[in-house]
Backbone:
């Protein structure tokens, strides 16, 4: 320290410690020797950086490799989740569209029966009349309907029995259980077991399969069977999403 000259004009910045004016350029206060050039204080951390483990200050650029690794892992996880859950997500979307969209009947372009009783061919099941029926001579017989253009199958309506009139219905054999085998354009076969109520009228089977090409109805169980009583399927109707 050196003695202060008497004519020193106190026109400089005041001391941050005692407030004494000092000449510009001085490094220490002429009265208390406190540093005049105060170091700039670092900016306050945001509140979330004050919580462990975020409160630690890091050097610029440090942790960059870790962040990149975490980003790559996150992208890989999303890709894996999309691969695993895409079929399920697509099914959910299509199911919602089935419920919100309209329906329209679609007629098969062809029908074949593995077996049929005389006078009751397989074509009788798609002629639009419930008093004419396909008569299966035995269980295990099947009716296959084919379609020219792939479509979204949302429902099938089946009329079992020889007639929709209750008395006539009871006089004939009618199926109570069957399998539906739906083949799509890619060759995949979807199987669904169906149980029919033993009463006349329409019985609806809810579906939800895209790109359908053929539908096969295989009879598994029946009631009212007897000599000369083929298992009767009055009508089969197919509905697509519009």
Residues:
């Amino acid at each position: 320290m050196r003695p202060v000259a008497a004519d020193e004009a106190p026109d400089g910045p005041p001391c941050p410690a005692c407030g004494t004016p000092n000449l510009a350029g001085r490094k220490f206060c002429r009265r208390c020797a406190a540093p005049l050039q105060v170091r700039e204080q670092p900016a306050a951390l945001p509140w979330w950086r004050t919580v462990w483990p975020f409160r630690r200050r890091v050097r610029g650029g440090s942790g960059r490799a870790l962040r990149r690794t975490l980003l790559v892992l996150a992208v890989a996880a999303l890709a894996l989740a999309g691969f695993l859950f895409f079929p399920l997500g697509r099914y959910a979307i299509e199911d919602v569209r089935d419920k919100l969209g309209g329906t329209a009947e679609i007629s098969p372009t062809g029908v074949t029966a593995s077996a049929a009783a005389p006078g009751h061919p397989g074509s009788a099941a798609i002629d639009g009349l419930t008093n004419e029926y396909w008569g299966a001579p035995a269980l295990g017989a099947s009716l296959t309907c084919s379609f020219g253009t792939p479509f979204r199958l949302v429902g099938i309506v089946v009329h079992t029995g020889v007639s929709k009139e209750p008395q006539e219905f009871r006089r004939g054999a009618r199926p109570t259980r069957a399998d539906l085998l739906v083949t799509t354009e890619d060759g995949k076969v979807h199987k669904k077991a169906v149980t029919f109520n033993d009463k006349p009228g329409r019985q609806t089977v809810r579906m939800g399969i895209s790109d359908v090409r053929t539908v096969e109805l295989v009879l598994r169980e029946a009631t009212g069977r007897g000599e000369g009583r083929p298992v009767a399927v009055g009508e089969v109707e197919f509905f697509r999403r519009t």
